[in-house]
Input
Amino acid sequence: MKIPFSPPYIDSSVIEEVTDALNSGWITTGPKVKKLEELVCSHVGVSNALCINSATSGLMLALKWYGIGEGDEVIIPAYTYAATALAVIHVGATPIMVDINDDFNISAEKINEAISSKTKAIIPVDFAGWPCDYKEIKDVINKNQHLFSSNNNKQEQLNRILLISDSAHAIGAKYNNEYVGLCSDITVFSFHAVKNVTTAEGGVLCLNLPKPFDNQDEYNYLRCYALNGQTKDAFTKSKAGGWRYDIIYPGLKINMPDVLAAIGVAQLPTYFSSILKERENIYQFYQEFFKDKSWAILPPFKSEEKLSSCHLYPLRIKNITEETRDSIINHISEKGVAVNVHFQPLPLLSLFKGMGYSISDYPNAYDNYKSEISLPIYPQLTQGELNYIVKSVEQAVESHL
Ligand SMILES: Cc1ncc(COP(=O)(O)O)c(C=O)c1O
Output
């Protein structure tokens, strides 16, 4: 059997919607993007959502929106994909990495230790679709209010550290019975090819700013900023007589094209009505199978406050070394099952090592990494394939104990 790790879910509705975009005479940002933004708002419950060309761009845009740059610090977990840190570096600020809890997510206690008078934002990551400890993180922000000083108008209005969720994995996850998107000031979801909902490449930035901000005004500003700071998008300019525009900000060029948004337009309603549930069923199947294995550490799925979006199934094996984990993965791969590791903690990667970050400062990140194997999870998997996956994992692990 050959089981890929994460193929995209492309059904006939996706083909129809993309074909419609291609036949419409308009392929870049226009009506399909607008439709996808409306769908995100109505399903997630946020008032405003801006589609961009990646979650990485969305994180950069959020940081730029708050005027974050040189001399500022942004707190992030050491256990994430590089994009979280790179977004901070791209705006000229310094990522301050902190360690994680046993559930893979950033530790509120470690955030508390890392906050300084330079901290302008915190970017928690909802790893695998499991929401962070938002209440505890907000308490830490409020507790350290006295350290915050504002450098511009937006910072004066919010008058505290900005909370940006890197929810690349977490569309459809819930925190306190609300969808993730309503836990932070700004939430960024990814629509990358391997994500629960995709546009091939893309992302969406959701606004949930408190008063006195007007989220519609901030959306208008961000939309313009994401299109070179240009007052009119190409769609509006293309109408007869609509040619004149102005450039009013040093903007980025990070808009999403309609031909890609069309994939998301077709996927998003089906995701919320059935595919999310199918992912949950697979997650629960894995939980049931591994719960009696003395060597398995199950990932979090559901608690009183939280429900995972089941983006990844990050199984951990007790008391193994990194080398044994790698050998187990080789064994599973020989059976034709593609598995993965999420993530290599950032301090293990050359760029960050070279910047002076050291894995010895992040013992929980290393412990989780060295024992983690992500299993395939997507709706196309048949029961026969799922049985084959768990048996392959069981055999591989037990031959190493
Ligand atoms: C935690 C996390 N943040 C950010 C990103 C970046 O998403 P994108 O590829 O849409 O820029 C990813 C992508 O895998 C991710 O896993």
Summary: The domain at 12-262 is CATH 3.40.640.10 (Aspartate Aminotransferase; domain 2). The pocket of pyridoxal-5'-phosphate is lined by residues 54-56, 80-81, 83-84, 125, 166, 168, 190, 192, 203 (CB under 6 Å). The two ends are 25 Å apart (CA to CA).
